[in-house]
Amino acid sequence: MSKLDKSSHLYQLRHSCSHALAQAVLQMFPEAKLAIGPPIEKGFYYDFDLPRPLIPEDLAILEKKMKEIIHEKQTFVRREESIGKALEVLKKANQPYKVDLVEGWKKDGSTSVSFYENVDRHGTVKFVDLCEGNHVENMGEIKAVKLLHTAGAYWRGDEKNPMLQRIYGTCFETKEELNTYLQQLEEAKKRDHKILGKQLELFAHSALVGGGLPLFLPKGTQLRENLMNFITKEKKARGYKFVTIPHIAKDELYMRSGHLGKYDAMMPIMETEDGDRLVMKAMNCPHHFELYKAQAHSYRSLPLRYAENTVVYRNEKSGEINGLLRVRALTQDDTHHFVRYNQIASEIDMILGLMQKVYARFGFTKYRARVSTRDLNNPDKYFGTDEVWNMAEKNLIEGVQRWGAEYFIGEGEAAFYGPKIDIMVEDALGREWQLTTVQMDFIQPKNFELTYTNEEGKDEYVAVLHVAIYGSFERFMAIIIEQFGGAFPSWLAPVQAKLLPVSDAFLEYAHTIREILENNDIRIEVDDANDTLGKKIRNAELQKVPYMLVIGQKEMDEQKIAVRDYATKKQEVMSVMEFVEKIKAEAEA
Ligand SMILES: [Zn+2]
Ligand SMILES: [Zn+2]
Q1: Which of 77, 218, 373, 441 is most buried, judged by most C-beta within 10 A?
Q2: Residue 58 within a domain
Q3: Residue 3's pLDDT band (boundaries 50, 70, 90)?
């Protein structure tokens, strides 16, 4: 799960692939303008300015050309040039993006740059690219390469710049590793939450409602409710208090918090007759702070944990909206922990313990933590004393150490108001998702005067921890739909069992059983269509319902049901109450 190591042979292979790709593109489009082409965690890419849009067939042609280039076993030869000479060469070659790069380096004070020449066995220079190095000896070492897809990418990632065509590819040490990865990609495509969301009738989008605003169908709503019930129960068991706030507030609230102007959701949506300007919330913290202030607090009542499952609104860019992964209305399982400074360590332990339990329920057992700390070379950037920061960073680091998960320090990545822990979780396909953040905050308690009375009767500031375990319900749903491939365990599935009467003769008995199951809080559907049993089973399988309950003459005579397990395809005859017990046991597990 670690990132691609710059010193590894794999890095060199992928980096060298970028050169082979650029060379192949120039063979196909001699007028192509080259941008950048780095190795990445799962492969490599290269950005090009091309005379026409690429079509999928082009990738096959380019891949064939790449393989011919690789077959030539071209070597890499370094050549240093003064920055002036480099600019001259690149301008002459009509490579404006490379010129732009070099001009940037020149501004930063560089005086020379390096080029790498690809030389074939006859000593002929086949291709030259501006590059800092770190390649294989010769291209013959590349044994397993594949071009994957294309995407648009702005030059330097800035939408004011020209849109380039990015070609993605991947490369592994061996063909076996490449094939395993390609199979994973295929599997990921099959598990795509947007496809499964439709197939399983979970959610829909409407152009008229708007992009990034998913609408949840009854089954999707049930899935959300199951997620919500689970996290709510776990939080209540740990003493969290649930609160409720409106989705709008006066703009003054966000002037106090300093958020105003940073989120488009905070544009005024209405003005009251008193002249108050109301805005949509993009976060819940300030509302929860005002709730904290509504009552007096003593050291005896801390830690205090306010929790709420509530929607915030963010104006995500259209190009970044993606199914449920990135939306404009997101429901957070948000909590704010108000603690004394000497309670930070124990609070972190509690939060990490909760996280671990939640992740395990969804089969996430591999994760790692990043602790973001101050940039020690830039101490003025941060709010709060060194003493407080040292204490907080120490608490976070020791917390993840006690937790036992793999962790690393992101020095200089902390926000100015406090250090944080981010948890990255690996899913069933080996992909890593950043899920939970535990954010320390020393500044908002002062902005909002969040105090408590200590043992001596004096007021002291609390520290605040901002935490959302799932992050957002929408994004978490996307991740678990793909994690389970839509085949949810029974406790989570919107429909836990489907009753399949073999024919209409057994419909009445089926409904009797449905009633018993519903009275026992089992989520059930009856397939009363005039179909064969085979068709009914296929339909239930497409819906990935955990259990199919087949009912025919034998089952009716014996007052039993034949329970077919979606996961194992095994069938077992049992009484209705035995099935109820089975489902209840699975919910407790
Ligand atoms: Zn290179
Ligand atoms: Zn918050």
Answers
A1: 441
A2: yes
A3: low
Amino acid occupying residue 589: A
336 is a catalytic site residue: yes
Token digits of residue 200: 């399983």
Residue in 370, 466, 475, 514 annotated catalytic = 466
Residues 553-573 have pLDDT tens digits of 999 999 999 999 999 999 999
Neighbours of ion ligand 2 (CB under 5 A): 285, 466
What digits encode the pLDDT tens for the residues 126-169?
999 999 989 999 999 999 999 999 999 999 988 899 999 999 99
Which residues, other chains included, contact 580 with Cβ-Cβ below 8 Å and sequence gap of 6+?
Answer: 516, 517, 520, 522
> The domain that contains 510 carries what CATH number?
3.40.50.800
Q: State the distance from the centre of ligand 2 to the C-alpha of 336, rounded, in angstroms.
A: 6
Residue 265 burial (10 A CB sphere; 0-12, 13-18, 19+): buried
The catalytic residue among 287, 326, 336, 560 is: 336
Is residue 285 annotated as part of the catalytic site, yes or no?
Answer: yes
Q: Of 12, 74, 95, 332, which residue is the catalytic one?
A: 332
Burial grade of 206 (CB within 10 A; 0-12, 13-18, 19 or more): exposed
* Nearest ligand to residue 287 Cα: 2
Indicate the number of domains in the chain: 3
332 in catalytic set: yes
Residue in 143, 314, 357, 582 annotated catalytic? 314
Judge contact between 257 and 449, C-beta under 8 A.
Answer: no
**How much is the mean pLDDT over the chain?**
94
